[in-house]
Amino acid sequence: MAISPLAGPLIMLLGMVMFALNDAMGKWLVASYGLGQVILIRSLAALVILAPFLWLAGLKSITSAEQPWMQFARVVFSTLEVFCFYYAVMYLPLADVMTYWLAAPIYVAAASPLLLGETVGWRRWCAIAAGFVGVIITLEPSRAIFTLPALISIVGSMAFAFMLLSGRGLRNTPDKTLVFFQVAGAALAGLAFAPFDWAPISSGVDLSLLGLLGIVAMAAHMLVNRALKISDAATVAPLQYTLLLWAVVFGWIFFGDVPRLSMLTGAALIVASGLFIFFRERQLKKRETVLPAVPE
């Protein structure tokens, strides 16, 4: 049966709603429970959902994973990223934190010449510069830029960028294996920190929400992967920026956060820069199939 052209975009949009819902639930839960506790229970729930897929793939998909040191580096970055994210949302509006994280593709483009030997021409460097200006505007340069939550947000978004970069070197590793290592790393780190900030779970509803946090995150990952498989990336990847819209909506509904003008301005620059970099890279890849690579 033919797949509707709208299927991929609709699945990607649903995945972004799920990610935003996961982030809003996480912000709600870390207000009452320890950071390590939330991440531990979230990760265990995700592993339960992932287990059947790993069983079907076989243990060899884990034990024979390529480039062990690169896998380890990716786990370190992904674990640091998730801890930074949930720490940041304890103190900052959801939309602000999401804006910092959406800047990750800009960091990737800036670091790729040094770490991956990729060529970046003047057009993309201009877009990278504009993206950094967007981050600075969002931070509102003042003494507030040196607050711990703001600095943690920057560190977390950069860790996310390095996680994406390391993923480029692991293209042959199945998605299920990458997700397993990522979730298992977060679970181990959560287990290490949970005893120091464990809070009694006050109700069955909270316990359900803690477990649901991991399930919603896994569902979001699966939806995004599915969308990328049935539709061209140029069609669905830009829709990931709708995550910021949902962060604004959920932040306002659940936490009463009203977006600041500086956040909206900075976010607009970051989104525009990210989209330009994405489409420019795709244009160059298509050109390289018929012409030798040339500087931009």
Could you describe the 3D structure shown?
By secondary structure, the protein is an all-alpha fold. It has helices at 7-30, 35-57, 60-63, 68-91, 94-102, 104-115, 122-139, 148-168, 175-197, 204-230, 233-236, 242-255, 261-288. Helix 1 (7-30) runs antiparallel to helix 10 (204-230), helix 2 packs antiparallel against helix 9 and helix 7 runs antiparallel to helix 13 (261-288). The longest helix is centred in the C-terminal third of the chain and has 28 residues, at 261-288.
Largest sheet: none
Give the distance, in angstroms, between the N- and C-terminal Cα atoms: 42 Å
Shape: globular
Seen as an oligomer or otherwise, the chain set is single chain
Q: Proportion of β residues?
A: under 5%
Mean pLDDT: 85
Task: Report low-confidence residues grouped into runs of 5 or more.
Answer: 289-296
Tally of DSSP helical segments? 13
Q: What is the element string, with H for helices and E for strands?
A: HHHHHHHHHHHHH
Radius of gyration: 19 Å
Give the total of beta strands: 0
Would you tell me the structural class of the helices and strands? mainly alpha
As a percent range, the share of helical residues equals over 70%
Characteristics of this structure?
78% helix; 296 residues; disordered C terminus
Blueprint (SSEs and pairs):
Elements: H1 7-30, H2 35-57, H3 60-63, H4 68-91, H5 94-102, H6 104-115, H7 122-139, H8 148-168, H9 175-197, H10 204-230, H11 233-236, H12 242-255, H13 261-288
Quick structural gist:
Helices cover 78% and strands 0% of the residues. The protein has helices at residues 7-30, 35-57, 60-63, 68-91, 94-102, 104-115, 122-139, 148-168, 175-197, 204-230, 233-236, 242-255, 261-288. The longest helix has 28 residues, at 261-288.
